[in-house]
Write the structure tokens for this entry.
Amino acid sequence: MPRRDRLTPNVTVPVSSGLLTEIDRYFDALGAHRNGDPNPIIEIGAHASLEAIDNRRQLATEMREARTVWAERAGGVRSDSVAWKVIDSVIEPPVVDADSVSSRCNVSAVAARTAINRLAELDTLEQAGVGLGFRKWIAPDVAPALDRFSRHAPGAAVPATPDCCLLLLAP
């Protein structure tokens, strides 16, 4: 609803995650609403919205900081390099492989692998999986920020540790 009403045109604020932090209070508010008192559900919804916004702002700040660090590390990379496209696309999700980079950045698999390898040399990506057909790369500066976000907003996100992300992307 906030997005549809143009209150958050560029992002979906996970209000439900704020509601899940106090489940008993939420269910009590629902019960009060069913009994004709809308005030508790309005109050808990407003509180959850503010918590969700604060949490999302913190995550956005950490993502901008990671992007700034990556830009500094990649200072010597040609401006038309695919590596810059990967830097701009790896924020979400923070785990990639050559196929996903190729698709997202509209480049060949060879160009995708070259960009991934260059970013690995710059410590912007690190290999998170090994094996035939399962080479995944993670943005180590982003995964901890997503973990912190998920801890502050239960139910809003899956922790972004390498093993968890690999499970999400496993074929």
Remarks:
- The longest helix spans residues 39-73.
- The beta strands are 95-96, 126-127, 137-138.
- Residues 1-8, 155-171 have pLDDT under 50 and may be disordered.
- The helical segments are 15-19, 23-34, 39-73, 82-89, 98-105, 109-121, 143-152, 162-169.
